[in-house]
Amino acid sequence: VPRPRNAFMLFRSAFAAAQKIGTNIERDNRHITRIIAHCWNRLSDSEKQVWHNKAATEKAMHAMKYPNYRFHPIVRAQKPAKR
């Protein structure tokens, strides 16, 4: 069961879907996330509140759909290899 998305993940999805950063500018998702994070940090609290409200709505829908859901992180025995 996937976890419900937080406010930043919703913002990032909408930002990427709007294609404000073209593939001819940047193709690496790590850099795209950094650019979007910079835009997120520049938003005012009232603009961020819209995304927090959407995240709360998604969390409530997730709770209704999966009432017994509880996040259990997987503990890895070894650290993943660096690229």
UniProtKB/TrEMBL annotation:
Domain HMG box as annotated: residue spans: 1-70
GO cellular component: nucleus
SMART domains for this protein: HMG (SM00398)
Residues in the DNA-binding region annotation: 1-70
Molecular function in Gene Ontology: DNA-binding transcription factor activity, RNA polymerase II-specific; RNA polymerase II cis-regulatory region sequence-specific DNA binding
SUPFAM superfamilies: HMG-box
Coiled coil, from the record: none
Keyword tags: DNA-binding, Nucleus
InterPro entries: HMG_box_dom, HMG_box_dom_sf, SOX/SOX-like_TF
Protein's recorded name: HMG box domain-containing protein
Phylogenetic classification of the source organism: Eukaryota, Fungi, Dikarya, Basidiomycota, Agaricomycotina
